[in-house]
Amino acid sequence: MLSYTTVQSLGQVRLEEMHEQARRAALAKTARRARREQRTRAGLAGRNAGPTATRLPLRACDPRPASPGRRSSS
């Protein structure tokens, strides 16, 4: 049987490992968010670069014919 102090020491080590794992997970999450934000900014900058980058409403690009229940875009 393990002594009380051995169990306490093992529990303390396990707790420290869990804290370290949580710290690494938080750092990885922050890095992923930063990369995603950087990609989003780069994509938006490329998309809005020229004068032809005017955005049309989605209805103007909708290939479906207007049904009686849908309002026309004009």
Task: Describe the fold and architecture.
- The model has no long low-confidence stretch (mean pLDDT 80).
- The protein contains 1 helix and no strands.
- The longest helix has 44 residues, at 4-47.
- The chain is elongated.
- It has a domain at 11-38.
- It is 59% helix and 0% strand.
Features:
mainly alpha, 74 residues, 1 helix, 0% strand
Task: Compute the CA-based radius of gyration.
Answer: 28 Å
Strand tally: 0
Oligomer: single chain
Helical fraction equals 55-70%
Number of helices: 1
End-to-end distance = 82 Å
Specify the structural class. mainly alpha
Question: What overall form do the CA principal axes indicate?
Answer: elongated
Strand content range: under 5%
Provide the low-confidence segments as ranges: none
